[in-house]
Fold these 2 entries.
Entry 1:
Amino acid sequence: MSTIIHLLEEAEDVFGRVTPDMEMEVDKVHQSTNAAGQRLMRKAGTGIDLFGPREFEEGRDERKHINPRLSAKRDMDIIVDREVESPHRYGIHVDSSPSMDYKSDGVRFSPKQVSIIIALALAQDLAKQEEAVGVLSHGQFYRGGKRAHHRMADTLSDVTIMGGEDFPDIHGVFKPGNTVIALSDFLSDNDGRLVEFLDDLAERHLQTYLVMVADPDVLRFEFKGNNEFKGPEGERSLSGEASKVFEKTEAVRNLYLTNLRVRVAWLQELCAARGFHFVLHPTDHPAEHAVHFLKEGQDNPLSLVPEVSP
Amino acid sequence: MAGATQTTAGYAAASLALGAGGVALGMSGLGPVFFASSMAPQILGIGGASLSGLVWLMQTIPPKPKQIVFPGIRLLYNILATDTQSSSIPFWQKALRCSIAMSAFLFAADPRLEQETALQNSVGPVLVVVDNDWQSAKDWNLIRQRIEGVLESAGRQGRSVMVMPTTREQDQEIKPGPLQSAAEARTALPGLGPKPWPADRAGALKALETIQGGASVVWFSNGQDDPRLVPFLEKLEGIGPVSVFKNNPADAAHILSVKPGEELGAIVRRLNPGPQESVLVAATGAKGEIISQIEAVFPEGESSAEAVFDLPPELRRQIVKLSLPDEAHAGAALLLDESWRKRPVGILKGSGQGSLLEDSTYIKPAIAPFTNLRAGSVDEILKDAASAVVMTDEAILDEEERRKLGQWIDKGGMVIRFAGPRLAAQPNDSLSAVPLVPGENYTNGALSGNKAASLSEFANDSPFAGLKVPKDLEIRTRVLSESNIAGAAQVWAEFEDGAPFVTAKKQGDGWVVLVHTAANLEWSNLPLADELFIDMMKAMVGRSKSASAQVELTKPLPPLNILDAQGRLGAAQKGSIKLTREDVKNGTVGPFSPPGFYGQDSVARLAHNLHRAVAEYKPAPELSSSVKAFGYKEDQGPDNFKGILLALGMALILADLLARMKQSNVLPGVRFTSKPEVSI
């Protein structure tokens, strides 16, 4: 018991280190996405009766789930949603690699900060509904109570300190049907590891959401003049180049945007092929958009990348 | 290749053109701006030529690219740098850097704003006329700066200069200086200083007559009116266009004058009868120590104010100068000699010392208020300077004392003697104004009907003229003079019966005055006729000479101390400086008789003050419209741009530095930080 109290205190302390504006943002996202009576996401498996009977919808519901007593009483086919009794696990991964710290002028938060806001808002929402939420790499899941997202913040802090930029090992953590949400800019050189990670998730029948959180500079590339670009982690090209110099950067914008569109399309396709969901979230957009797209799906992420101008 | 050659040739041509332009700019200046550095043409020539080279360098050498740490670097790898066009330093940055270089060259060339406009729109030689009189000392530094400004301006315009002061020197009459370059005139300028005497307008006018040909005239005026001012100005205008520098009348010097009367004080005069004004007047001692100071207040519209010091005799005796502490010129100092002090008067001690009925009992209180009174023997009295000696009938002198007293009278002393029984018994006393008839004469005897004699009205030429004879005055006993005294003595007062009452005899430079009755109440009630007795004593003592007045003026007096232009009393150079009777009579203050103390010693000396030569002190009338007028104190603003150029250059360098930092992505607010901004 004392251990739990100590952990809670520690978590509270860590959560206190989240900047006030981020905390406000988390609350704002939580408020705007927490509609009464709605569950965050659809979940697989048998469920329990809820106090939310609704009319049968052809094609969406199975006839065997029609509740005869309520249907007779109301003279119409009534369905009652069923949920699994066991708590559903949500593993959230926030990429903390240096590239997530890039922040362009005029933008309030970096991709990492936005990712944390989204993660905490989700945690707050899910924990309120008695779901188990945890940081993917950490193996600990927190359930229920208002403090869940505080503990989540604590864990995220550990992840950051430990260097959680790589995709985590998920062996023995999830059961089929559990959900994994990965927030990253997906600009790492190691695409092979990404594919491997997604394949692993697919094999375990986990519902997966990839959220690409990108700075507007990355999405729009509106640099001008003489610039020398370097990677934040000392990246080098295949030919060994440590940097790229463009004396008139605006001239290469179309080429860059083409490359970016190809990359986003590839990520989208990578997810679609495995039944996963892909969300693209620019950091200059409200974080609740990302939460909304996680629930409802994003129709055309590529539309957020500027078209190549003629 | 051909294009590159053409471009290089173009830059070379531009260099030559800009270099030539820089040389021309350095030589001629730009409008009211000129370059003070002697190397300005070379500096600006090199600067102009190097600007073109700087532009070429900036065109040729590409700028350092801006460093950006970008997370999407992998999306740029397959983009070839050759896909882009070549760029160079942006135009605004080229302009910024050229401006920095220009600021540096201009700074070195030392640009200055031409502030002297007195010589604008005129050509030819320049005649600089300077009223370096006593008034100029007050603001001499300012005047000298203005003179230097005009000379510098003339030098820049390549005009020759002639400088003419309007005060006389000892060794020469006023005359224009040689026509010389402005630089030579500036070199000689330290020799031109203010003098502690007035400008000699007549002498200056005469000197102007000797000038041949025309010249632009710049007159540094004292702003004071003068009977010869109009012809002087007309003569100046005849020489050429005239610019006049003068003080605002409110800023002009004040001058101290003697205040008539017995009170110690001065009259302060100002040039402009403007609003009410207070001026501090100080009374100082021999060592310059301030003994007292008071404020003289000019009422609004008045041009003079009085400053009267009410000091005890002990302090009054120590004062040698009144001055205006806030001003430093000869007019602000008024030297005081012995004539300013209360006359020293001695009473010869009588034989009945200590007696309540002593004759001097009535004299002492009567004359003490307006004299420095002391009693004693002849030796004791004459030991210090004395103007008059009062001798009652009780005083008995031996032969030696009589001889000393006689010598003192010969030198200008005055003996005021009262009659009495002793004198009546010795009618041939040498210290008597007139020969006397032996014995006392009783006026109230039977022959006169038992009626005491009274006095007739005082004659107009008498020292007592205007005094009223009280009706109850009774002179019962008197001594009578011999019947024929015509030519031997003057009669200052007489009885109604025509007998003399006060007779006076000139002896040497002094006087022997006899009052034909006693100084006590036994012979008359004169000592009790307060007003008449006091006024008569005052009039008689007033006829005595002060110690200063006893100074021989039969021959020129050598200087003891003279005032310099700043009103400081200093040691005098002997030689040609001397004070003559004519100087005193005419109030001449000049190089041969500057203000100061003249005489043999600190007592027997005369104070010669500047105010004698400044009878009228009023501002010059308005100048004609053809004369350009300037004020000495006109604000001219900053005269050089070095500070501005330095600040501009530093600001431009800072701006360029910030621009380069921004371009190199090292300014605060950069796009990337390797350290996470969130600590969780």
Note: Residues 41 and 179 of chain A are 10 Å apart (CA to CA).
Entry 2:
Amino acid sequence: MAKLEIDQMEKFLRENCPKEQPSADVYAQLEKQAVWNDPPKPVKSDKPVATVVLLAVILATVMMFSLNNQTEQKSPEPAQTMPMRQPKLLDQIAMNGNLPEIGSYRFMTNRSDDFNLSFSAETSVPKTLSDARESLQSLN
Amino acid sequence: MQLFAQNPQKGFAQLYKTHATPIFLYLRSSFGFSKEEAEDILQNVFLPWVREPAKFARIKNPTAYLFTSARNAALKFKAEKKSTSISIEASNTGHSDNVENGLIISNALAELPTEQKEAVVLKIWINLTFAEIAQLQQCSLQTVVSRYRYAIAKLKELIPWQN
């Protein structure tokens, strides 16, 4: 029994190359999963979605119109109720003989002097420069 | 690759016919995977090609690409399984011509480090050049040549010559 030389070893290995092959199932599985054998997926249609959206828009519009009609029918009522307050105020004036002494009115009447901001007739403001000069000379 | 770009189905059939057996042999002999494990890895290597053929139509060197994919998948598989010492039985290695020689070679190869086994298997059985093996193993040409020489020398010691 001798040891193989390198060249002989290479030859020996080459002659004894394994002949085993992968089973055909591997290729079959790959073909099965291949993109060219995939059944085309059903294309999602936008029509049903568009129909639903359209219906929703129509329903919303109809609802808005009906609501507007309802509010228009109810709108005269507040117009009738508003003037109802006025007779109460008039009754109060009629009873007191004057405007009701409430709030700022009463405050103003009691302390009218403090709010008298009108200027006296004597204190005339010079309107021109010559007027001002004359008034200064008269003071001196 | 032109055929694959033009007609992926026919191109893939040709690609598989050319490369499946060498890759299978590489996985079985270099990494010591069982037939089922090697077939699983082989399927994973080719699966992207059939799922997204357009992505692979521009690859210029499919041999290098496929062997690199197979090597990465094999190393990942081994790391996950942590089965670094898988013994190869002669009945599993496909040496149908001479079972006895097949058993001797398998046992001898099992004694070698994976990189040296790869170098021998890829050079002698798959006929890759040292440059291609270096690219695959991501090392220098000298390293591959050294690995190959060490492997052959070790096999020379392990395999007795019988006249």
Note: Residues 8-31 of chain B form the longest helix (24 residues).
